[in-house]
Design a protein that fits this description.
About 10% of the residues lie in helices and about 30% in strands. It is built from two helices and seven strands; from the N terminus they run ααβββββββ. It folds into two domains: about 1-30, no CATH class; about 35-140, Immunoglobulin-like. The mean pLDDT is about 80. It has helices at about 10-15, 20-30, and strands at about 40-45, 50-55, 65-70, 70-75, 95-100, 105-115, 120-125. The chain is mainly beta and about 160 residues long.
C-alpha cells in the first residue's frame, strides 16, 4: 500500500514555499531501501555537520563528491584491478553506489577526506550577511534628526 500526499492545495495558498514542498514531495516518494554503504550524520555545532561514510576498499580516485544547490551526491565506482585473482571467498563489498543527501538552504560542503576507509564530508551553514539578524538602533524624540527635504514627495499644486 502506498500513500501519496497531494500538495496542490498548498501551492494555491502558499507563496515562496516551493523549496519546502519539493523536499516534502521527494521525501514522500518510496525509494528502495539500500543500506550500503553505512553512514553517520553528526552535528558538530550550531552550523557545522559531518557525514561519515564507511567505504572500505575504495580509494579517493574511485569516489566522487558532488555539491549541487541543495543536493549532495556521493558516488563510488570500483576500478577492476583484481584481474586473474581466484577468490575463495569475497566478502568485501566493492559494488558501485550513489548516495544522495538533501541539503538545507545555505549549507555548503567545506571539505572531504578519506582516512582508514572512512569518507568524512564536512558541511557548514553559511548564511549571507543580508539574511542574518541585524540590530536596529532606537532613537528617542530628543535625538531624532529632522527629515531631509529631498525625501519629501511633492505634487503640483492645484489651481
Amino acid at each position: 500500500m502506498r500513500t501519496t500526499l497531494d500538495f496542490s492545495p498548498l501551492f494555491r495558498t502558499g507563496i515562496g514555499f516551493d523549496r519546502l514542498f519539493q523536499v516534502l514531495d521527494t521525501a514522500s516518494r518510496v525509494q528502495p531501501i539500500d543500506n550500503w554503504p553505512p553512514y553517520d550524520i553528526v552535528r558538530d555545532g550550531e552550523d557545522r555537520y559531518r557525514i561519515v561514510m564507511a567505504v572500505a576498499g575504495f580509494t579517493d580516485d574511485e569516489l566522487t563528491v558532488t555539491d549541487s544547490p541543495n543536493l549532495l551526491v556521493v558516488a563510488g565506482a570500483k576500478k577492476e584491478s583484481s584481474q586473474g585473482v581466484d577468490y575463495l571467498h569475497r566478502g568485501i563489498a566493492g559494488r558501485e553506489f550513489e548516495r544522495r543527501f538533501e541539503l538545507a538552504d545555505h549549507v555548503k560542503v567545506a571539505g572531504a577526506s578519506l582516512t582508514q576507509g572512512l569518507l568524512t564530508i564536512t558541511l557548514e551553514r553559511q548564511i549571507p550577511e543580508a539574511l542574518k539578524p541585524r540590530r536596529v538602533a532606537i532613537r528617542s524624540e530628543e535625538t531624532r534628526e529632522p527629515i531631509e527635504a529631498s525625501r519629501h514627495i511633492e505634487a503640483p499644486k492645484a489651481a
